[in-house]
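Q: My labmate handed me this sequence with no annotations at all. I'd like to see what the chain might look like in three dimensions before we decide whether it's worth expressing. Could you predict it?
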Amino acid sequence: IYNYPYYVDHMERMGYVKDQDWVEFLITIPKEMPDRFLRASEIVKKRSGLVVKHLQDKNDVYPYAKDIFRLINRAYKDLYGFVELSEKQIDYYVEMYIPMLRLEFLTLVVRQEDNKLVGVGIGLPSIAKALQKARGRFLPTGWYHLYKALKGKGNNVLDLLLVAVDPEYQGKGVNALLFNEFIPAAIRLGFEYAESNPELDLNHKVKSMWNDLDARQTKRRRAFIKQL
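A: Here is what I predict for the chain of 228 residues:
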């Protein structure tokens, strides 16, 4: 999405004011796994009784699939503009999205005592350039560009689609467990950059995740509002 700079002035002249901003970051993936994440993840595991669930096959995801979306409901419920997913929607999204996942970039954090899902991180190789090559068309050859991109062929950018942490465990280092899985996988598969999804500018908990990484803000989106 790109809007010309004059759009902001145009909206303000019409009496609209800023309601909320979303920002996105481009993160340079380190060449080696930072020691601080390794140390932090070990501390979190010992103190919180949390473990990372390593899945070997996409079929192994399905027992957790609905819990992923229910966790998103709990984690995002207080965020501006979020509407809770219904069980019918969850069923639909499970069937739509689970087959597309790359297990290397799906991290599930569970409570060891009862296997309750408390954290999830999902990423995919970026399809932005593939969509440009396909000119937005799936046929006749667009599918091939998308297939190559999702396989990571000729693609050095990873899209960080979402991170969700149960409110009970927010601020307790679950992010360290997620990074401890994501970063080595990205290094191993040759990715050089990761791009965050839009995150609320006021969501300081999420923005703080990038503090220990080489991250720069690259995009800003804005919702305008006008009292009638």
